[in-house]
Design goal:
28% strand; 4 helices; Aminopeptidase
Length: 169
């Protein structure tokens, strides 16, 4: 998979700079630097599935900026211009804001993605008193649609038993 920065920059309000074939960096008007991109799935074992990530690279916070969302949507649209792909996300629980992140993904999907062409599935998994949120977004015309959805739900159910705690020393 190779995403085109040129295609993304046709619609993105912030100029994205490619870091590699699947990730990009952009700076907001307020100096916040974001890195967005995809990495191949090795958790759900779904063919042509990639995890989406977004990170605040310089850990600065600015005011609510709708151009950030528009830039992220431009990147995601370029991802879905590829062959039938599957986008996965796992909400980072380290700062205990994973539920808010999941709600954000759901809101972005409902407000900005053409839901007549795409479907989103979200799962919550409890492990050691922490809720982990994962989601799957894919085009409805994916030829493996039913298999992908079934695999996602099956793995999500199994995740607590697959998670291993670090050994205490």
């Amino acid at each position: 998979m190779k995403l085109s920065a040129d295609k993304i920059n046709e619609t993105s309000p912030y100029w994205v700079i490619p870091l590699d074939e699947k990730s990009f960096r952009f700076r907001t008007d307020n100096g916040v630097v974001y890195v967005v991109g995809f990495y191949a799935d090795n958790i759900f074992s779904i063919n042509d599935a990639y995890h989406f990530y977004i990170s605040n690279a310089n850990h600065q916070h600015g005011p609510n900026d709708p151009k950030v969302l528009a830039t992220v949507i431009a990147v995601i649209e370029e991802f879905f211009r590829q062959e039938p792909m599957v986008m996965l996300y796992i909400c980072d629980p380290r700062d205990h804001r994973q539920a808010a992140r999941n709600r954000l993904y759901l809101r972005w999907f409902n407000d900005y993605i053409n839901s007549s062409d795409f479907r989103l599935y979200s799962e919550s998994v409890m492990y050691k008193s922490v809720d982990y949120y994962a989601g799957l977004i894919m085009r409805k015309d994916n030829p493996y649609y039913d298999d992908v959805v079934a695999t996602f739900h099956r793995i999500a159910e199994m995740l607590p038993s697959l998670m291993v705690s670090p050994k205490s020393e």
